[in-house]
Amino acid sequence: MIIxxxxxxRNLVARIIKLEGFAVTEASNIKAAHKVLEKEDxxxxxxxxxxxxxxxxxxxxxxxxxxxxxxxxLLTAYGNIPDGIQxxxxxxxxxxxxxxxxxxxxxxxxxxxxxxxxxxxxxQLENLVGKKYSFDSIIGKSKAIQDAIVLAQKVARTxxxxxxxxxxxxxxxxxAQAIHNASxxxxxxxxxxxxxxxxxxxxxxxLFGHKAGSFTGAVxxxxxxxxxxxxxxxxxxxxxxxxxxxxxKLLRVLETGEFIKVGDTKSTKVNVRIIAATNRQLQxxxxxxxxxxxxxxxxxxxxxxxxxLRERKEDIPLxxxxxxxxxxxxxxxxxxxxxxxxxxxxxxxxxxxxxxxLKNVIERAVILESSDQITLEVLPYDIQQGVDNKADSxxxxxxxxxxxxxxxxxxxxxxxxxxxxxxxxxxxxxxKMEEYGISK
Length: 440
What we know:
The protein is an alpha/beta fold. It has three domains: 2-128, Rossmann fold (3-Layer(aba) Sandwich), CATH 3.40.50; 135-307, Rossmann fold (3-Layer(aba) Sandwich); 310-436, Helicase, Ruva Protein, domain 3. It contains 19 helices and 18 strands. It has helices at 7-18, 30-39, 56-66, 81-89, 105-132, 143-156, 172-181, 200-208, 225-228, 244-256, 282-287, 293-299, 316-331, 340-348, 354-368, 381-387, 396-410, 415-422, 426-436; strands spanning 2-3, 26-27, 44-48, 50-51, 54-55, 71-76, 94-97, 162-165, 190-194, 209-210, 222-223, 233-237, 258-259, 268-269, 273-278, 302-305, 337-338, 373-374. The strands form six sheets. It has a five-stranded parallel beta sheet with strand order 2-1-3-6-7, sandwiched between helices. A hairpin with a 2-residue loop joins strand 4 and strand 5. The chain is extended and about 85 Å long. Mean pLDDT is 88; it is low at 387-394.
């Protein structure tokens, strides 16, 4: 958009820009510019300094406050540098001299457009990430999951320590991410650590960091994840697996916001929110002297229990449909949905692995299905047999042979990949191929 009350100059600049293939709108004053902005969405604005109904320099500040992604180039009179400087302070991209810098219009416009497109792309990515890890992304309409979401939304606005309880695969990390993204720390780091994935010494180094020379192999200083998460959120999954000796160090972080790195002599100060999660009964661990009672009470400030999938069966069709759509898009499959028969057995299954198990089952079904719907035949045998006696009358070995052949076809003969998809060892795959006479 070009805002200038001098019609001839406005038309000249518009013509220069149009010849480069850009769409151009024009306005002779601020009031007219407002009307254009209500209907159009310009990427770049060329704005005169002096307009009949106000200052272009002041108008820049108003535009940037309301439309932060728009870039503005000021049109100044010859030698009027102070206006240009003030315009830059108000958020202008740059300024050019009217009539004398016509050759600079397109190069400057191109640079401004590059910045706008980059900012829009960044915003799109931020929106995608925010949507992926927001409360809106948590699927389920059952009372059990909605109650958990309401609690999480309330505590998200605070800095309180949160303890998420629930079986494996119930979505504890998804909830932790959503809490972080709905908090005042959303612009800072969210760092997750599985406390059960490391030995004591490695976990201590990962969590608290170390100084160079503190142990063999420590060739330089290393920040721990607590320090990396400074200002943001640290999610400690499987907190019940944390070695007893390290629990006192974590307690100090919660109580004082300080810790000492491995091999260091002075404290490091941090401002970090802790969200912990476990599938174990911490009170029982406390009773067995396997978990510090003072740490338990420090973590147990605000507890949210996530329901198992079997406790929210009405959400299974929603989750199954979501993952079907997700994996269909990922694999360019032509599957349009799930058959009634298949959905019936999915709803009846006990789902000991919860949402994670359902997700894996749907991924596998999308890989194996050759029709336009996920059918009973491509679901795992234990799920089929749970409610349908028809599976009992089938020859199990014949079904297994067919299944292995299907997976090998999908993996294009890659036996290592086929074994991974079948969740069996490569040696087991070769043995079964020989047993069933599968040559591929």
